[in-house]
UniProtKB/TrEMBL annotation:
Residues in Beta-adaptin appendage C-terminal subdomain domain copies: 2-47
Pfam hit, one: B2-adapt-app_C
Classification lineage: Eukaryota, Metazoa, Chordata, Craniata, Vertebrata
InterPro entries noted in UniProt: B-adaptin_app_sub_C, Coatomer/calthrin_app_sub_C, TBP_dom_sf
Protein name from the UniProt record: Beta-adaptin appendage C-terminal subdomain domain-containing protein
Length: 51
């Protein structure tokens, strides 16, 4: 459900993996000017901070 909403806004999940207890999420974003951006997010369970 969330993935479909993100795709509607040109945000696509490329990969997800777990490294040392942290989830790594890779997103591809297409901006309105046609530029593509690759974003890497590190998510640690129980920690509200993102890097």
């Amino acid at each position: 459900a969330a993935s479909n909403k993100l795709q509607g806004s040109n945000i696509f999940t490329i990969a997800k993996r777990t490294v040392e207890g942290q989830d790594m999420l890779y997103q591809s974003v297409k901006l309105t000017n046609g530029i593509w951006v690759l974003a890497e997010m590190r998510i640690q369970t129980g920690n509200p901070n993102y890097t």
